[in-house]
Amino acid sequence: MKSIQKKSLAAAAAVLMLGISGLASVGAEPSNAPSELNGDVVEYNARTGLMTADGHVVLKHNDGVARGSHAEYNTKTQDGLLTGGVVADQGNTHLTCDTVRFVSGTQFVAEGNVHGTQEDKSYEGPRAEYSSDTEYLRLPAGGTITTADGSFTADYMEGWMKDNHARGVGNAYVTSPKRNFEGGGDEAEYFGAESGKVVLTGNAWAIQDNNRLKSQRLTVYLDDQGKAQTTADEPAEK
Amino acid sequence: MSMEKKMKMMLMLAAAAFIGGIAWVVLSVPKEENIKEAADPGPRLMEYSSNTIREEKDGKLVWEIYAEQSQMNVDTQDTVFQNVTGKYYQGDKLITIKAPHGLYNSKTRNVKLDGGVKAVTSDNETLDSSALEWVANEGKLIAVGKAKLVRQSVTIMAERIEAADEFNVFKAQGNAHIVKGKE
What we know:
The complex is a heterodimer.
Chain A: H1 8-27, E1 35-45, E2 50-61, E3 64-74, E4 80-90, E5 93-103, E6 107-118, E7 121-131, E8 136-139, E9 143-146, E10 151-154, E11 156-160, E12 165-176, E13 181-191, E14 197-208, E15 211-222, E16 228-232
Chain B: H1 3-28, H2 32-35, E1 45-57, E2 60-73, E3 79-90, E4 93-105, E5 110-121, E6 126-135, E7 140-151, E8 154-164, E9 169-180
């Protein structure tokens, strides 16, 4: 049984959820609050419901603001697009990327050098997808989530925010230099509702201080004191 | 020669020089016919009160303009209006426009209203601006100067707003700002 400091995975899973949902509410129109689109040139087709803006584009909704060089938004379908050095802010959430696409007012896709921050948490990767109705987040090309406690990297990542559940597949790697902890495997899965359980599978390994574990499957149970109990389903190498 | 004679001689010479100078100034002024061939009679104008003009296309009324005072240039057919009420027929939509001043260009058949223009459609949409031009060959209304369009839940503000396609397609330029929902 080994001890692992809590928070590294939990905070890492939370950062994208908060950051992405913040940006989604900038572009989408989930409430009756007015949406505002500014630009050098703005066009509106009342027949199709399509609004376009070019040059110094600023999109505002609630307290969120997104900037870019070109925007499209369809008031009928609630589909939208913002391109050209996108910078979005809402509250303490800041996100930059090349392109953001909104579908039906509930689906959101950020592409190209996606970088999100919220306080001391950040995310970097090539693409992020978020569905506000199911609160499902998908990072199909993976990325790195960083918090003050450490970072979480995988080739593919997804999260279910309602369930406080996140998964990383392919070269999953969790590190917390502050706690002198590292772990990895083919897959890492975090269950926030189950005492912060983290399951590392497929060539799983974990190191903390001078303790080293290796197994096909390692389960880490986080306790309230920020420690963890680690169990190996197969005999672990030490 | 006595001093008194010398003085008289000098005064006489001075008086002769003065009279000669005046004569030169008067005689050297060119005759009027040399500098002005003919007086410009100015444009030939006809003035009307409470007049209405109309434009039709393919038998359909495109617009009609009522003005309290109209002044038409007989030669160019251009017309200047005072206190104008214009009616534009755009598909099923009627746009009623009021302005203190306007100008009809007979060559282009464009109508430009200015001095603070207010337009209201039969669907209760509004367009306010400093000036508003009907561009006949493009079928466009162009609002210029602090233009503001309110159409259902959409408000557009810009320095210039073009309205086309029977008041369904809008292009805003210059600090363009569009709001969907209550502002």
